[in-house]
Amino acid sequence: MVRLYGLDGDDWPASYFTDSYISQLLEVMGVMDLPRLVIGRQTPALGIWARTRRAQALHHGRIQGGIETVTGVPRTLLDILARDDNALVERDLWQWQGEDNGELLQAHLWDAWRLAGILLVRRQRRQCRLSDASVRDDDDGERCAPSSKHLLWRLVAALEAVRFGLQQVENKHLLVANGTFFPFVIAGTESALLREEPTWLVPLERIREVSPRINPAQNVRTACEILGQAWAELESAVDEVYDLERAIMAWGGELAMF
C-alpha cells in the first residue's frame, strides 16, 4: 500500500486529507507501523505516522489534535511514542498535558498509555546498554519522572479505574476497553516489581480474564496466555522484566499491542 499510494515520500496530495475515509485509513496504517506497539517486530517500520502528521500539518496549516480511533488516545500522545530518542520520549511523555476535551474515563486510559510508554522506553534504554557497551546512559530521562515502581503503581491504578469505569452504565458508549491492551501488556511484564508487590497482580489478573472476551483477536489471546504462564512462574523467575519479545519470537510471530 505504501508503494501503491506513494507514501514513501512526503509529497502527498491534499485529497488524502479532504477525504475523511482516506485520512483515517492513513492514521490506522500509521498506528500499525509504530515500532513501539509491536513486540517481536521482524519487519522494518516505514514511518507512516510521522509522515501522515507532517502532511496533515502541511495541508491543514496546523497539527491536528483530537482522538485517534484505533487506540482511543490523543494523536499528540502518539506523536511522542513515534519518536526515536528514548530519553526525550520519556521526558515528553511525563510532561504531556493531555487533551482538553474528553470523558473522565478517557483521562485514566490516557494516563495509562503515558505511564506505560515511560516504562517501555526505560526498558529499551536498558536493553541498549546491555547489548552495546559503547552506548552511554543518559540519566535525564530517569530524573524527569518518578521511579519505575511508582509509575507501575499508578499504571495499575489507572487500568483498574478504567476496568471499573467500564462497568458503569453511563460509560457503555465509550470505546475504551480495547485501548487498555498496550498498557496492560507493559504492566504485566514488569517482573521484578510485580514480585515485590504481588497484590498489583490482582487487578491485572482481572483484566487478563476479561480481555479475550472483550476482544477475541489472536494477539490478545496469545498475550493473555503467555502473561498468565509468566505470572504463575513469577516467584521462581529472576528476570527484572519478563522478556515477552523472546517469548513471542519463539511462538513464531509478532504481537501487535492494539
Write a compact overview of the structure shown:
This protein has helices at residues 15-18, 20-33, 48-60, 75-81, 86-95, 104-131, 140-144, 148-165, 181-188, 191-196, 201-214, 218-232, 244-251, and strands at 38-39, 255-256.
Walk me through what this model shows.
This protein has 258 residues and is mostly helical. It has one domain. It is 58% helix and 2% strand. It is built from 13 helices and two strands, in the order H-H-E-H-H-H-H-H-H-H-H-H-H-H-E. The protein has helices at 15-18, 20-33, 48-60, 75-81, 86-95, 104-131, 140-144, 148-165, 181-188, 191-196, 201-214, 218-232, 244-251, and strands spanning 38-39, 255-256. Strands 1-2 form a two-stranded antiparallel sheet. The longest helix has 28 residues, at 104-131. The model has no long low-confidence stretch (mean pLDDT 87).
Kindly name the structural category: mainly alpha
DSSP helical segment count: 13
The parts where pLDDT drops under 50 for at least 5 residues are: none
Order of helices and strands: HHEHHHHHHHHHHHE
Rg on CA atoms, Å = 18 Å
Globular, elongated, flat, extended or rod-shaped: what is the shape? globular
- End-to-end separation in angstroms reads 20 Å
Whole-number tally of structural domains: 1
Spatial order of the strands forming the largest sheet: 1-2
Average pLDDT reading: 87
Sheet of most strands: 2 strands, antiparallel
Instruction: Classify the helix fraction into a percent range.
Output: 55-70%
Q: In percent, how much strand structure appears in the residues?
A: under 5%
Number of strands: 2
